[in-house]
Amino acid sequence: MAKFSIGVLFALVMAAAAHGQATIVIGQSPAARCYQNAIWGRTHASALRPCDSALQVAQLTYRERQRTWVNRAVINLHLGEPETALLDLQQAVDLGFESAEIDMNRSAAYIRLARYQDAIDAATRALDAGLRDVEKAYYNRAVAYERLGRIAEAYDDFSAAAAAAPHWQQPVRQLERFRVSSGT
Q: What is the mean pLDDT of each run of 10 residues along the chain (184 residues)?
C-alpha cells in the first residue's frame, strides 16, 4: 500500500487570516448598519458605533440584539481584537443564541489568540452544527492544524474549503504551498 506524504513547499508563513461570519439584520437601523460593517470587513473603530447604538435601543428585538452581538464580534475580529470578539459572542450566547456561526467566529478568534486546538474544536462544532458556509470553518481549521504542525490534516481541510467554494481563491492559494508525494 502506498503512503502519501504532504509537506509545505517553503517555510510556514502565516496562512491568511481566519474568517468570521456575520449574521443578517435587515433595514436601515443601527443594527443593520452594524451588520453591513461586519460583512464588508470594515477595519476602523467607528465601525462599532452602529452596533453600540443598536444595543442601547430598548425596542431592538431579542433576535436583533443577539445578532448584533455576533456582528459586533465580527467587527472586533476585523479590528484585531479577538478577546473582545469572544466577549461579544458570549453576550449573544447569554441571550440564548447558539448557532454554528458563533462557533465559526470563535474559531477565528482562537486562531488570532494562538489557541489552535480551541480553534479546531470550535470549527468542528460549527461544521457538526450544519454551518451554511462550510468553507470558512474548513479554512479556519486548516490554519489551526497547520500552526500545530498537523500538515496532512491542514492539507485535507484546505482541500475541503476549496471544494466547497470553488471560486474562493484563498484556499487554492494555500494549497499551492503544499507538495503531495507518494512514498512507501
A: 31 40 58 85 85 86 90 94 97 93 96 98 97 96 97 97 96 92 68
Q: Where are the domains of the chain?
A: 22-149
Name the helix (H) or strand (E) containing 4. strand 3-8
d(CA 137, CA 167) in angstroms, rounded, equals: 16
Q: What are the respective helix, strand and coil percentages of the chain, to the nearest 5?
A: 60, 5, 30
Compute the distance between CA of residue 95 and CA of residue 55 in angstroms, rounded to an integer: 12
| Burial classification of residue 45, based on how many CB atoms lie within 10 Å of its CB (0-12 exposed, 13-18 middle, 19 or more buried) | exposed
CA separation (Å) from 116 to 40, 60, 178? 26, 35, 20
Give the whole-angstrom CA distance, residue 109 versus residue 90: 12
Whether 162 contacts 172, CB under 8 Å:
yes
The CATH H-level (homologous superfamily) assignment of domain 22-149 is: Tetratricopeptide repeat domain (1.25.40.10)
End-to-end CA gap in the chain: 7
Q: How remote is the C-alpha of 11 from its chain's centroid?
A: 24
